[in-house]
Amino acid sequence: MSDSLAHVVRGRAWVFGDAVNTDVMAPGIYFKAPFEELARHCLEAVNPAFAREVRPGDIVVAGRNFGVGSAREQAAMALRHLGVGAVLAVSFGRIFYRNALNFGMPALFFPAAAEIRAGDEIEVDVVAGRIRDLTTGGEWTVNGLPPHLMAMVGAGGLMPWLKARLAAGRAGVAP
Amino acid sequence: MGATLTEKILARAAGRSAVRPGEVVTCKVDLALLLDSGGPRRIWPRLKELGVGVWDPDRIVLCTDHFTPAVDAESAAILKLTRDFAAEFGIRRFFDMQGIGHVVLAEQGFLEPGMFACGGDSHSSMGGAFGCYMAGFGAIEMTGIVVTGEIWLQVPETIRADWSGRFAAGVVAKDIMLFLCREIGMENAFRVIEFGGDTVARMPMPERMVLTNMAAELGAETGIVAADATTLAAIRAAGREPAADAPGWQGDADARYLARHAFDAAALAPQVAAPHSPANSGPVGDFAGERIDQAYIGACVGAKLSDLRMAAEVLRGRRVAPGTRLLVAPASTRAMAEAAADGTLAALTGAGAYLLPTGCGACAALGAGILADGETCISSTNRNFQGRMGANSARVFLGSPYTVAASAVAGRVADPREFLA
């Protein structure tokens, strides 16, 4: 486990429903535009205020199958670019989940996501898997980041991790 | 207890005698498919940042498909960069403007039973039709593969979907997948869908590829169909001899499945998925009469030669309805050429179809044929998420090429069985 991993993330909750797909996080019609412009349209079809008003450290809380769909890494990148500190969802689309972690954005499975209200102040210990709703006093324990990915996420994602591994003469991405 | 085909392939790729679902393993990659979208333009800057090259240029297949043909400065630059990447790193298996990568892989016979392959696009699962494990990943993860030749996986559970019986006329693999999106849902991460049964055994490869392609819509790690004589014949038809051990890549009879489903193909009606999810599906009759602005035959899943032929079967001697447009973007230049040679294209254009270039096109709103605000489309593609094919307020129905062609003729969502009697 890396010491550089920010164990605790704290921010306002942005709440989304089930099956929010990567097309609405990173619409294809903006693929050729500068990334900053694509990010401005992130989740626009679901919540037009999100990209405008999300603040660094804010936490996305979603229902089932968050990030279902395409392999486009711009979906996770856009959330990261907008400053999202962590994503908590009942479950994830498989590629989005991997992409999020590969960009150093913690993603935790959170079965009780529906209990969080938009705007609640949320604190997440991504290693211990402790989630606290500071607005309502709710507290939950879920699985923290997978042990084999802790160091990679802690390094800031796959690129810094690869850089460190290459510098150490070990190219493998596995723990 | 025995192992599923997926478990056997992952054990081999991980250098282990056996693996169990839930275990985390590191697999060596036999083949990496890179596309112009999530390929060189995203990976090359990262290689430069890391100061490394590619681990093995001969294990990479590179195709341009998402941004072909160039229509503006941005797409031209993306394609140029992709070509430069192929030259810089000596990637010999580079297919420039020859079709959608998943289809090109099959046409070239590059996939083999037992192989462990990764692609930088969610529909890389299509390769699983060849009895290999092939799954899609983001460009960041493909970067890791290109550098190290390895990737971590949590060994997935396997769900078996058996289909038995013969389809009614006008019912095809696409209908199975739209049905399954509703029936087993789109939330199947950490699971593989293994297709079997006599219906699947009778399917030619392009139809099996529809099953595994849309395993992505099921949310599964991938889909897989164990190899048989059809698989090996397809590889040979592509001019390559399968490895001697190819037929041996089969699951054990006593393999453990997370679930086994048995379905009756004879009872299946043509299926349509309504906006904005492939799981929002039902028999075509549930949606009959929805007025259509655009009918689209395109994408890896829905514009192979066999798909173009399905559309032609409906359209021959008929006309696209006034007020409706039919756009056709063949999945590969080979499919286009073969459709030209056998009269399929003439049947399409004779009915009033508008022929588009080969490529991913309007499926992901990257190429020609995107939708305006408030328009309604029926499409042979695999995904109908909001905004996917253009405007956020556009509505996309999904159906088989038969159903799309029938709807184009009717100007409304229509049952292809009425046109095939």
Describe this structure in words.
Chain A is α/β, with parallel strands linked by helices and 175 residues long. Chain A has helices spanning 22-25, 35-40, 50-53, 74-81, 94-102, 150-154, 158-167, and strands spanning 8-15, 59-62, 86-89, 107-109, 121-125, 130-133, 139-141. A seven-stranded mixed beta sheet of chain A has the order 4-3-2-1-5-6-7. In chain A, a hairpin with a 5-residue loop joins strand 6 and strand 7. In chain A, helix 4 crosses helix 5 (94-102). The mean pLDDT of chain A is 93. Chain B is of the alpha/beta class and 421 residues long. Chain B folds into two domains: 5-244 and 254-264, Aconitase, domain 3; 271-420, Aconitase, domain 3, CATH 3.30.499.10. Chain B is built from 15 helices and 18 strands. Chain B has helices at 5-13, 40-50, 73-89, 101-108, 139-148, 173-183, 198-202, 205-213, 229-237, 299-302, 305-315, 333-341, 344-350, 401-410, 417-420; strands at residues 24-28, 31-35, 60-63, 94-95, 116-119, 133-136, 150-154, 157-164, 191-196, 222-224, 259-264, 271-273, 281-283, 294-297, 325-328, 354-355, 376-379, 395-398. In chain B, a hairpin with a 7-residue loop joins strand 12 (271-273) and strand 13 (281-283). The interface between A and B is large, with 44 and 52 residues.
Based on helices, strands and strand pairing, what is the structural class of chain B? alpha/beta
Main sheet: strand order of chain A: 4-3-2-1-5-6-7
Shape of chain B from CA axes?
globular
Which CATH architecture of the largest domain in chain B would you pick? 2-Layer Sandwich
- Strands ordered across the widest β-sheet of chain B: 4-3-2-5-6
Number of strands of chain A: 7
Please report the number of helical segments of chain A: 7
How many helices of chain B? The count is 15
Taking pLDDT < 50 over at least 5 consecutive residues as the criterion, the unreliable ranges of chain B are none
Q: Give start-end ranges of low-pLDDT stretches of chain A.
A: none
Sum up the overall morphology of chain A in one term: globular
Let me know the largest β-sheet of chain A: 7 strands, mixed
Number of domains of chain A: 1
